[in-house]
Design brief:
With 81 residues, the protein is an all-beta fold. The protein has strands spanning 2-6, 11-16, 19-24, 27-32, 38-42, 45-51, 54-60, 63-68, 71-76, 79-80.
Length: 81
């Protein structure tokens, strides 16, 4: 599936992944290939994703995620380092 992580300032990631874990507003959840469509609020925490290079983590301050037809778009309010 394809993952994009965007903030108002820049695009932090754009590529293919096999798994993504999100800090959902009601708890952590994971998305795999062929996941059902969804839109969810995200709270501050880590977005963990597995790409060809291995497991990666990106801290976000909150945002929204949309999952549709193996495309995952994260609109984050900010990124923590």
């Amino acid at each position: 599936m394809h993952l994009e992580i965007l903030t108002p300032e820049k695009k932090f990631f754009d590529g293919d992944v096999t798994m993504v874990t999100f800090p959902g507003a009601d708890g952590s959840f994971q998305v795999l290939d062929d996941h059902a469509p969804l839109i969810s609020l995200l709270k501050e925490g880590n977005v963990e994703y597995t790409a060809k290079g291995g497991v990666n983590n990106l801290g976000i301050t909150g945002g929204v995620v949309e999952v549709l037809k193996n495309k995952v778009i994260v609109l984050a309010t900010g990124v923590t380092v």
